[in-house]
Write a structure and sequence with these properties.
Elements lengths: L12 H27 L7 H16 L3 H6 L7 H14 L1 H10 L7 H23 L7 H4 L5 H53 L11 H25 L17 H52 L24 E7 L5 H8 L5 H8 L3 H10 L8 E7 L4 H16 L4 E5 L6 H10 L9 E4 L10 H5 L9 E10 L6 H24 L10 E4 H6 L10 H11 L3 E12 L5 H28 L4 H36 L7 H16 L9 H23 L23 H6 L4 H14 L1 H13 L10 H19 L3 H18 L9
Parallel strand pairs: 1-2, 1-4, 2-3, 5-7
Antiparallel strand pairs: 4-6, 5-6
């Protein structure tokens, strides 16, 4: 028994010892409580609490691809890709424990601190009661511990020191992880800021096509309104009016500002919020309808995969085209429409170097047109049963000469190929195809295959498509799938690949199997010439002549077949400018066509179900409603609800349902799952372009009739033209000699071309896009306003969506020009 005594006025050593033991027990229990709190860290009540976690997830997924790190945003920080690959899993697991430890003990959530203080007070209160009721004023340690021996006391003391050291190690480890994580985030943000600063300083022009549009003016006014509202709300917040808003009729109204704010609250709740909520409800209904359509398409695709449904040809052409009976092969016309199909920027870059004239010759001989012509000319089809038309609409004399020279080269090798150039180039691609179909010899051919200048069909393309026409006299079109040689070039091409993979794998395949109708993709397809003629041929009334002829053929009772297993290599636009112009044409043209053919659909003899599918699903839901609600709901209504909190968008509309739809979209391209978050944000960003295009096409604005050829770079895949290399191995020496001869004889022409390119060299720069930049500031302003009302999930969505608009507006996505 060890007795302890103390003098009056001195701290009781027993109480001090007991306090230390109680502190150790509290630390142990604190660790247990901390583990429980880590499981509950996903609390969206406070935006500050989840911000580091959400930001880390977004950045890790945004930077996971080495291609994106090297070529798009963080080109100057290539060491970051190695850091990401080696710490990817570490950032997803220990990072959350670290942030949970820091966030659970910081304001404004005082849960842990309040629990600590209450537990400590309870223990101290219990100790005082025990001391007051004890008979002895100097109890022993043995009595306190229930008769424990000195060895047990020393063991307890040793465990206490060990627990304290372990707690210190854990704290130091988590502090180190926090510091490294913050440094990683800071380096990425600083790199983004530096690149944005360089882009703004280097850019001397904005996007000419969009800066003066009416939509841009409306968005500018909208930005001014939200900035004024944010300033007003900040004043009210710091004055405490968000706790007890001043009333118009109360005596609390003492100044002009209070009176204005009180009237604003009354107008907001009675006149502004109800119509905004009604519009939001309409958009939510449209959003749900479109989501159901997307789910239905996915279920149809799963059913096709499960049952193994695919078109089967009644006949096959497997014989040798050289030694077989060529009479069995039908006559096929192959058309290659093109317009200025070469890459002048690449040519001009090398033209600056006078000493590398050989490289200039090589570049000229490897243009886009050459790849397409070569791929078509080596297709496995009897040469006497196929005619190739090269339809050149180029206005550049040098390009015309190069394409004509390429055609003559293949003519010398025995290929039936013709070069056509229109003197009066009207009607764009539709006018070009219409002019080619008016030739007298076309009546001798039964089918026509169409390939754009950047498409490279496989050698067996015709053998896998033409047989489907045999025995199907009502079949008008066989459409094949596109495969992209540059889908991994940058982030923009990856996101395009997600969209187009869903389009071909799901939309085209499901519509082709169940209703035998879909929109013709304009290339990589084979038409029955009789169906083209009976449907009215190519018309120049819209910029989507492919969809126009498909709708008219469908109204005439013709059927379509889609072959998902036959792929044709092509390119994706690598710059945002080219992609934006392409999307504008693809979304304005359908609205032009809908306005022109609406009454034709009603008067047609097809079934009522096909009419409903054509009007309600094909045109209205997928071409009009989709861009309308995407832009209105996520770029207009959602920011407004931050300033009009009486109108509300539920979290499942903002986050959960769009996330589910993004997962469904990305299933056909499973390798793109790391880009699901950038894909969701980028699709909302593109809704501005699609909405603008839809409005211009529906109301016949001038921009809806613009036709801009999508820029192509002439990229080739590793397997490109393999059949040509195998079949023509013997003649490669002759071809090489032909190139050398043409190089020597055309030296003067090359010198002339070099001097012309030197004079006309224009420095290419990435543009700034005002619409996207203004919308970025609107969304970021709304995100700042959402902090005042602690709307967690809305804050994160607005923040990341605003950052995405900023990145796109600065043209930091896609091809970067240094």
């Amino acid at each position: 028994m060890l007795a302890l005594s103390y003098s009056p006025g001195q701290p009781n050593p027993l109480c001090v010892h007991i306090s230390l033991l109680e502190e150790c027990e509290l630390f142990d229990k604190a660790l247990e409580e901390l583990q429980k709190k880590e499981a509950k860290i996903w609390d969206f009540g406070s935006p500050f609490r989840m911000f580091p976690v959400i930001l880390s997830i977004f950045l890790v997924m945004y930077l996971q691809s080495r291609v994106f790190v090297d070529r798009v945003l963080f080109r100057d920080l290539r060491h970051m890709s190695y850091h990401i690959e080696n710490t990817y899993m570490r950032l997803y697991v220990p990072m959350y424990h670290n942030i949970a430890h820091l966030m659970s003990t910081r304001p404004p959530n005082h849960e842990f601190q309040e629990w600590w203080n209450k537990e400590k007070e309870r223990r101290q209160h219990g100790l005082l009661l025990h001391t007051d009721n004890s008979k002895s004023q100097n109890p022993s340690l043995a009595e306190i511990h229930g008769g424990a021996s000195p060895e047990e006391d020393r063991r307890t003391e040793k465990d206490r020191h060990r627990n304290a050291r372990q707690l210190s190690w854990v704290c130091l480890l988590r502090f180190q992880q926090s510091a490294s994580f913050v440094a990683w985030i800071a380096s990425g943000l600083l790199s983004l800021i530096r690149r944005a600063n360089r882009r703004i300083a280097a850019s001397s022009r904005f996007s000419d096509s969009w800066s003066d549009s009416k939509l841009y003016r409306v968005i500018k006014v909208f930005l001014g309104v939200v900035i004024v509202l944010l300033v007003f709300e900040l004043v009210a917040y710091f004055k405490g009016w968000h706790f007890s808003p001043p009333s118009v009729n109360s005596a609390d109204v003492l100044g002009l500002v209070e009176l204005v704010y009180a009237n604003w609250l009354w107008i907001r709740s009675n006149y502004l919020a109800p119509p905004l909520q009604a519009l939001a409800n309409v958009c939510i209904v449209l959003f749900l309808i479109q989501s159901l359509d997307r789910i239905g398409l996915m279920l149809g695709c799963f059913w096709i995969k499960f049952k193994g449904i695919k078109p089967v040809a009644l006949v096959e052409f497997d014989g040798d085209v050289e030694n077989g009976r060529n009479e069995e092969y039908p006559m096929v016309l192959v058309q290659i429409p093109m317009c200025n199909e070469r890459e002048p920027d690449l040519l001009c870059a090398y033209a600056k170097i006078v000493d590398l004239l050989l490289l200039l010759t090589k570049i000229v001989s490897e243009q886009v047109y050459q790849q397409s012509i070569a791929a078509v000319c080596v297709m496995d089809w009897p040469r006497d049963r196929m005619l190739v038309q090269v339809l050149d609409d180029s206005d550049d004399l040098d390009v015309q000469m190069l394409i004509k020279s390429e055609v003559q080269k293949w003519q010398q090798k025995g290929v039936h190929i013709l070069y056509r150039h229109r003197l009066i180039r009207t009607g764009y691609k539709a006018g070009n195809l219409k002019s080619a179909m008016s030739c007298d010899y076309v009546k001798n051919y039964e089918f026509v295959a169409i390939f754009d200048a950047d498409f490279q069909p496989a050698p067996d393309f015709l053998k896998r498509t033409i047989p489907h026409f045999k025995g199907n006299d009502d079949l008008a079109l066989v459409q094949t799938r596109w495969a992209f040689v540059n889908k991994d070039e940058n982030l923009l091409t990856r996101l395009q690949n997600i969209n187009l993979s869903f389009h071909f794998e799901v939309e085209q395949q499901v519509n082709g199997v169940f209703i035998n109708f879909f929109g013709f993709n304009g290339t990589a397809g084979v038409w029955r010439i009789k169906a083209l003629e009976e449907s009215g041929g190519w018309l120049e009334r819209t910029t989507v002549e492919d969809m126009d002829i498909a709708v008219r053929a469908h109204l005439g009772g013709w059927k379509f077949i889609y072959l998902n297993d036959v792929k044709c290599l092509c390119e994706l636009p690598e710059s945002y400018e080219a992609y934006k112009k392409q999307q504008h044409r693809w979304h304005s043209g359908p609205m032009q066509l809908f306005r022109l053919c609406f009454f034709d659909v009603l008067r047609s003899k097809i079934s009522l179900s096909k009419k409903a599918n054509l009007i309600c699903l094909f045109f209205l839901l997928r071409k009009l409603i989709l861009p309308f609600y995407s832009f209105t709901l996520f770029c207009i209504i959602l920011p407004l609800t931050m300033f009009l909190p009486e109108a509300h968008l539920p979290a499942w509309v903002v986050c959960y349902i769009p996330g589910l739809m993004s997962i469904l979209n990305i299933i056909p391209a499973p390798r793109s799952f790391p880009f699901i978050v950038p894909y969701l944000l980028f699709e909302n960003t593109m809704s501005v372009t699609k909405f603008n295009a839809m409005i211009s096409g529906l109301f016949r604005f001038g921009s809806s009739y613009e036709w801009i050829v999508t820029k192509k770079l002439g990229r080739s895949s590793e397997t490109d033209l393999v059949a040509f290399a195998e079949k023509e191995a013997v003649s490669q020496v002759e071809v090489t000699g032909l190139h050398r001869a043409s190089s020597e004889s055309g030296l003067a022409q090359l010198n002339k071309l070099e001097s012309m390119t030197k004079k006309n060299v224009k420095r290419k720069r990435n543009r700034l896009y005002r619409q996207e930049l203004v919308l970025a500031f609107i969304l970021l302003t709304a995100a700042a306003r959402s902090l005042l009302s602690a709307q967690g999930i809305h804050f994160y969505f607005l923040l990341f969506q605003g950052i995405t608009f900023l990145v796109v507006g600065l043209d930091l996505i896609g091809e970067q020009v240094s």
